[in-house]
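ERR on first pass: missing label on line 2. Operator R.T. fixed the label and resubmitted. Corrected input:
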Amino acid sequence: MSEDHRADVVLENIMTTRAIRRFTHEPVSDAEVLECLRAAQQAPSGGNVQPQQYLVVTEPEVRARVAAWYGRAYHRYEASLDDPAEFRSDDDRRSWERTRDASRHLADNMADVPVLVLFLQPRIAWGSEDDEGPLDIGRLDASVYPAVQNFCLAARAHGLGTALTTVIRVYTDEVLADLGVPADRYEIAALVPVGHPTGRFGVARRKPVEAVTHWNRFGDRRR
Amino acid sequence: MSEDHRADVVLENIMTTRAIRRFTHEPVSDAEVLECLRAAQQAPSGGNVQPQQYLVVTEPEVRARVAAWYGRAYHRYEASLDDPAEFRSDDDRRSWERTRDASRHLADNMADVPVLVLFLQPRIAWGSEDDEGPLDIGRLDASVYPAVQNFCLAARAHGLGTALTTVIRVYTDEVLADLGVPADRYEIAALVPVGHPTGRFGVARRKPVEAVTHWNRFGDRRR
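pass 2 clean. output:
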């Protein structure tokens, strides 16, 4: 395989991995889930501790319980937000409304998504200290979310849609109790629904990278 | 492009993206860095806020200053750690020693790495609240580290090595002041060195995914 070809395929896969919130009823096999989890497991982690555990929910009755907590969390969260007072353009407003409608659709139909994957992270002290005091080397999150992203990219490569969601954390205690997860040891880093998209993969709207890139000194936008 | 071929290329790229800590002096072009940053920028973020800023350090004199802070942070951090009391196998011990030696090498040679990319995240309040109290929907990290992982995967597709490091956070204030970053607005999520590896890409050691995967209920390892 040529280097150029590899780069083309990988970049196209990254660029077209967007949040998918509407799924068909087509099933997803355990083997497909495991292949995506193998990709997740290969992500880097601080000191290679690989802290995350995966809880894969496939049984309809368990999915329904998780989905009920997700729906409650989502609607409480949406109600807590102010609508943006103004948009820079009609395009921006329509984009915001489409995302909100899709997010509501997901919240109201999560029980019908074929597979729900919970990424669990340990509740452990992270960091270190020496004579001068504690050393802030970042949070455990740096070791979990790269795995979530690997999972979503591998899924997209198999034609499977995903969305990185965190709002279910509002009901962390209830969800962990429901699924038998020791709540003193784990919290929820993300809930990722997995299924075949009703629509198509595409490139999501983002700010141009040049607008948020600085060269050698903050504020220097061009070289 | 067939779906199977896409999946093969993407998965192989993910599986062989490992931390690279020894680099050649071969230069990395600005265009290559920007292409990897475009991949980073396409990552998901809560509410699509795209919170991160990228600070790309290419000038040797600036790299040397950042590298000096990194080296101090790394050696303080390494000294603060206890050596593992025992290893399950000689393989485990040798793997741990190789990683430590490579990490030291990176800390002592960071100034010679062609490009250093700082991922900055805003110091903003994240989350929401309603009548019942605050809603914990997770931390901003969930919106930054997927971008770092996209960056590392895109780099590997171009034959470029990277490592997700966070230890420079020990000297966050000093580094931000040095680079003109407003310290009341940003913190450092990661420092990613970028260059051509002296060695080869390969599959890093990880726990088997089956050992950390649960089906429908925590503790249920097989279906």
